[in-house]
Amino acid sequence: MISRSELFAGAATYYARYRHGYEAEIIDYIADMLDLDDRVRVLDLGCGPGTLAIPLASRAGEILAVDPSEEMLAEGARRGTPGIRWLRGDSSTLGELPLGPVDHVVMGRSFHWMERERVLRYFDGLLPAHGAVVIAGPTTDPVEPPWEPVVQAVRQTFGLEWRANSEEYAQSGRHHQEMLRESAFHRLESRCFTRTARQSADDIVGLQLSFSYSSPARLGERLPAFTEAVREALAAANPSGEWQEEVVTEIVVARRSRHGS
Questions:
Q1: Distance of alpha carbon 10 from alpha carbon 210, whole angstroms
Q2: CA dist 59 to 104, 189, 219, Å?
Q3: Which DSSP string corresponds to 120-168?
Q4: Neighbours of 226 (CB within 10 A)
Q5: 104-108: strand order across its sheet
Q6: Closest Cα partner for 142 from 112, 187, 167, 105?
Q7: Considering the entire predicted model, what is its pTM?
Q8: Judging by beta carbons within 10 Å of its beta carbon (0-12, 13-18, 19+), is residue 192 exposed, middle or buried?
Q9: What is the torsional sign of CA 89, 95, 98, 104?
Q10: Cα angle 229, 171, 193; round to 5
């Protein structure tokens, strides 16, 4: 079975540059919901290159940024800021890591890689009574960007298909919120943030190389041919070269019952 770190081999720099980040409004919202200050320690599980950890670092006492990929951690450290401790590990090895006390957990587009029910039970033992679990990512019914059908056709030509984790809601049919409601962290609050992003062909090609199913390692010697095919397909579909996307990010904050019931 291919590990997540192997799936993303060669993708870290593309991930950092071409994945949508979290604008200041989102970071402010998370910080306010968690009452972040210099006494609060936050675990960012599946941190990637620090897409969420880096902007949160100035709002908390310490961010514990955990990811199974050395490449992602190295990219995050290179781009990073004081207040972040980069640790190699994943949801199955948290008990082996030198975390110390943790107040809250945040996850940005990583929860779907995990055995979600087991991980939530672990968080119940890890976090204090006031601790919250925050998931930042697309809504449960995301709208695909306008270039996706174009690029998907190219991926199919190259035999690049999405392979979801069996626990991921696309296969299990169970969205993150459903899993949370059945856990100790069943008191949910959520808010959606919407913005418009303009993307060039370079942006879209770079984005493809950030995905597990079309990472440089997955493509190997076919990388130049794939990127050229994507560029040609995009140009044929939209000669202007500029694409517009509505980016919707949902922040879900999950807490235990106020009365422990």
A1: 8
A2: 13, 21, 39
A3: HHHHHHHS-TT-EEEEEE--SSPPPPTTHHHHHHHHHHTT------TTS
A4: 22
A5: 84-88, 62-67, 41-45, 104-108, 132-137, 242-255, 187-200
A6: 112
A7: 0.91
A8: exposed
A9: positive
A10: 75
SS (H, E, C) 210-238: CCHHHCHHHHHHHHHHHHHHHHHHHHHHC
What tens digit of pLDDT does each residue of 106-159 get?
A: 999 899 889 999 999 999 999 999 999 999 988 777 889 999 999 999 999 999
CA gap 136, 111 in Å, rounded: 9
pLDDT at residue number 178: 93
The position carrying tokens 């100035």 is 58
Phi/psi region, residue 46 (left: phi>0; alpha: psi -120 to 50; beta: rest), is left
Dist CA 210 CA 218 (whole Å): 11
CA dihedral defined by 28, 68, 110, 224, rounded to 10 degrees?
A: 100
pLDDT digit string, tens, across residues 56-85: 999 999 999 999 999 999 999 998 789 999
